[in-house]
Structure formats: C-alpha cells, structure tokens
Amino acid sequence: MKIGIIDLIKFKTMEKDVLQNYISKFVNRLKSFLLSIFKFVIITGISFVILGPVISIFSNSFFSSTDVYNPSVFLIPLDPTIDTYRLAFMRLDYWNTLFNSFIYIAIITLLQILITSMAGYGFARFEFPFKNLLFGCVVVTIVLPAYTIMIPLYQHFRNWDVLYIFRIFTGEKLNLLQSTKPMYLMTLFGSGLRSGLYIYIFRQFFRGLPKEIEEAALIDGANTWYTYFRIMLVNAIPSVLTVTVFSMVWQYNDMFYSRLFSIPSSHNITFRLSTIQATIAFVDQVKDPLVSQLYVYAGVILVLLPILIMYLFLQRYFMEGLERSGIVG
Amino acid sequence: MKIKKLTLRQKKAVSGLLFIAPWLVGFLVYYVNSIFLSIKFSLSKIDIAESGGYSATYIGLRNFKYALFEHADFNQIFVDSLVDILIDVPFIIFFSLFIAILLNTRFKGRSLVRLIFFIPILLGSGAIAEALDLATQNIQGGASAMFSDFTPPSGVNVDYILGVFLDLGLPLGLVDYIVDLVSRIYEIVRASSVQIIIFIAALQSISPELYEVSKIEGATAYETFWKITFPMVTPLILTNVVYTIIDKYVTSEVVNTAYDTAFTTYNYGLSSAMSVLSTIVMCLILTVVCVLISKKTFYYN
Fold this sequence. Notes:
The structure holds two protein chains of two kinds.
Chain A: H1 5-60, H2 65-68, H3 83-92, H4 94-125, H5 131-143, H6 150-158, H7 165-170, H8 181-188, H9 195-208, H10 212-219, H11 224-235, H12 237-253, H13 256-260, H14 269-273, H15 276-283, H16 289-324
Helix pairs in contact in A: 3-16, 4-8, 4-9, 4-12, 5-9, 10-11, 12-16, 15-16
Chain B: H1 8-42, E1 44-48, E2 54-58, H2 62-70, H3 74-104, H4 110-124, H5 127-140, H6 158-167, H7 172-183, H8 185-191, H9 193-205, H10 208-216, H11 221-250, H12 253-263, H13 268-296
Antiparallel strand pairs in B: 1-2
Helix pairs in contact in B: 1-13, 2-13, 3-9, 3-11, 4-9, 9-11, 11-13, 12-13
C-alpha cells in the first residue's frame, strides 16, 4: 500500500490538533476547578468569620454557671440549661416589649415609605424653582451625621412648641423626651433615621419609570394624587421593599436616637437589651460578670430571632428589589 | 375678584412642591435650624437652667481652642479616628468589590451565602453590639476585644509567618498594615456588608450584552474586568467610599467623646465645638475624595 506523504503530514497535524485541543480543554477545566475551590475557600472562610460569633453566642447561651468555669467545655455545654432564657425572657418582658417595638417600628416604617417616596416622586417628576438646590439639601442630610445636630435636637424636643401656641395656652413648653413622639415627628417630616437615603433611592427609581404611564393616567382623567397613590407607588414595589427592609432593620437596631430622646425601653427591645445585664445584676443579684454575661447572650438570641425571621421572609424580594430599585441609578 | 388661573406648568410646580412639602418643613425645622444652633452653641458658653432651658453667652472661639489645645485627649482621639478612617476605607472598598464579584457568579447555595452576608447588618450595629460590648467589658476591662475570646485557638504560629514575610524583605509598614487588617477581619466584614449589597446591585445592572460582545471578540477575563466591570461600577465606588467614610465617622471615638461631653459633663458648648470641628474636617475629606474619584470616573449615568 502506498500512502502519499501529504496524507501522512495531514494525519500528523490532525493528531496534533486533537492533542492540543485536549490539553487546552484540560487546562480550562483545571482552571475553573481551581477557581471554584478558591471561591469555596474564601466564601466559607468569611461566612465562618461572620457566623462564628453567632454560633458561639448561641451555644454559650445554654451554658450553666458551672460550665463557664470549666475549661474543658467548648461550644457544647456539659450541663445545658434554659434557665438563662427563662430569666432573660422575664427581664426583657419579652412579649410586651417585642409587641410594642414592632408597633413602633411598623408605624415608623410606614411613615418613612409614605413621606420619602412622596419626596422622591416630587424630585423625580416635577419642575419647580430651586429643585436642584433642594435636592442638594437632601444629599446634605445623607452626608451630615446626626451627631452634629444632636444638642439642638435634644433641646428642641425638651422644650417643644409650635409657634408659641402651647406657651400661650398652658404657660409652659412641652417636654416630648422620654416618649416615642420625637421619632414619630422627625419621621413624619422626612428627617427620620436615614430618610435622605430613602428619598434618594425613590427618586432614582421614579426617574427610571417611563413617563407614558402618567400621561396615560392623565388622559384617563386621574389627578396627580390618584396617579401617585394608585399607579406610581404600586409600580415602585421593588424600592418600597428595599426601603422597608432597611428601615425596619436600622430602626430596630438604632441606639443613637433612642439614647438621645430617652425613648422608653418598653418600646425598644434592643435598647432594653443593652441594660439587661445591669437589671439582672441588681434585681437577681447575679454579680459575677462571667455568669451574667450568659443572660446577655440569651437576650441577644431572643432579640435577634424576630428580625432574622422577618429577614428570611423578605430577603428574596429584598434582593430582587435591590437589583431593580434605584440604588444603582 | 377673579382668581388668575394657573398654567399647567405652574400647576405642576405647585403639586411638585406639595409632594416635597413634608420633607421641606422637616429639613428647615430640624436641619437648618439645628445647624445654626449648633454653630451658635459652639461659639458660646451654655448654662442649663433647672427648667430645662438654657442661656447662651457669646465667648468667641474659646471652645474650639479648649478642644484643640487644652482638652486632655480630644486631639489624639481626633487624629487617631481620622487615620483609622483613611486606613480602613480603601481596604473595605476593595474587599467589598471582591466579595460582590464572587457572590455575583453562579454557584450552589448562593442565596444562603447572601443571607449570611447580611447578618452583620443585623448584628453589628447599635444595641446588640453594645450589649455584647458591655458584657465583655466587665470581664476584660476593655471593649476592643469584643469577639476575640470567641475565636477558637487556631494553632497557627503567627509570629513565625510574620518572620518569614519580614525575611522576604517586605517593608515593615506594609506587613504591619496587613496584620492589622487581618486581625480586625471581623470588623472589616461587618463594616462592608452594605457596600457588598450595593456592589452586587451594580454588577447586576451591567447589561450582559457587553460581556457577550467581549467574549466574541476574544477578551480574557482579566481584560473584561478592567475594561467593562470596573468602569461600570466606578460611580458606585464613589457612593460606597462616601458611605464608608460617613459610617466610619459616625461610629468613631470622636463622636463618642462629643456625646459624653454633652450628656455626662453637660458641657454643651464644648461638645458642639467638637462636633462642628470634626464635621468640617469630614466634609473637607469628603469633598477631596469626591473630586479625586469623580475625575477618574469613566462612566456616569
């Protein structure tokens, strides 16, 4: 048999091609394998860094006082107890405080959504004098830390008055501190906790919606307010969800305003948590910090649980909303 | 008398103003008013009356002078906080961008991981952290080692690794910087959770066509990152830098000092001076950073 030399060369190059193809495929697969291992290691590591303290708090909250002093006990208690939870439950006045806090947070969140979305819509869709200057002011409220104005705010609500009306009727100014009213008032007037940020989010979102929606509504005879409440706000659900989650979580965790306005701890469960150790030390005579720490851990778990559950329910919508809402612009 | 009818344009302007009216009132009452009062307080000596009122007497810049030159440690706290912010911000930004890119790729259990990365927002700020702080403070006498007693003994000889790095000839400053950051990894992760979320949202908003095109044209992953991903997220890098700086400032020692001065020693004038001073410096830093970054921004929507 006679094989042409050209055929031989062809065959050889083909073989080479196949080999090279195979190698490059292998290299690619190795690369992606290594990459995914790298990814796995990094993500697991950081998840561990985040979850580590939570797990330790959780397991420590079941420790009894003998476990604390036993050096061989690590993470898994030898003598598990739920006494810590019982006492923390009692001293937090859990159900009452939780109920009050949730009412408080729910009202604040609703106000936030209503007021900030209105302002955001106003900035996004209407032309009026000094619009850009005013929007600059919104950015200032985002950037300016509330700490700069804490003393005037404190004094404002300590001697609260509207245009001297109360002074005329009652002879003295009202003291709104030690109640939840200052927070409601500030939120109602768009100056609550991080309201500026929410206004920004809503404005960006409304700017992205097509103008035709409103034109159609106008032609069908809807007035501005009807259009806003029944059409625009419904379309802004992704942003509303984002703001809801942010507002609830931040309000739940807020310490600054709670301390500044001395908001009663019966309305603020996280605030109450910060004093639980002192309460237990005085009322139950648990003076040993190592032991009373256990009650704090139990309290942390109790306080964390409701917001974590709420987040679990909302997180899918939250992530979706975040991707579609205005943050990115 | 006949009321002049408004044109459509004016009508729209009026309803626009109505929409922002609540915010505008709040801004004037709570912000503008308070800022002026803050500045006034910082320039005067405040006497608190028993009825809860106060009287202010003008004393010029004495409060500022006192805060800067006579107060026991405001000076040092101030500078330390500033340095902390400047050190942490770049790292937090890079870290959160890196994590966001990792989380944005598809893999199993992505939603679980995203859930975990949100936990620091719940755990890290405000009251829960404070309660834990207080609890550990009583044992250790210092709040800084908040979670350190939870981290299990690692069995890695850190000093040895440090020695290796120093032997390699890396500058001591760099090694110190990295060791410092690694030892505060929990704090960094905690401080970058919102930034990660913002970056994820930014990455999601880049249209996939861009990647498709670059893939067809034969760009490598490295090129794709520097030519597409990075330029498209630069506007949000600015947002995140601003957010990080403010967030760091609000939780810094300066603010605590000002708070304590106001509500434990009741020296409103001095406290206002501290707040005003630090806010001015912070605003200067923010302006400089904004100008620098927006010059480098490739793409702006």
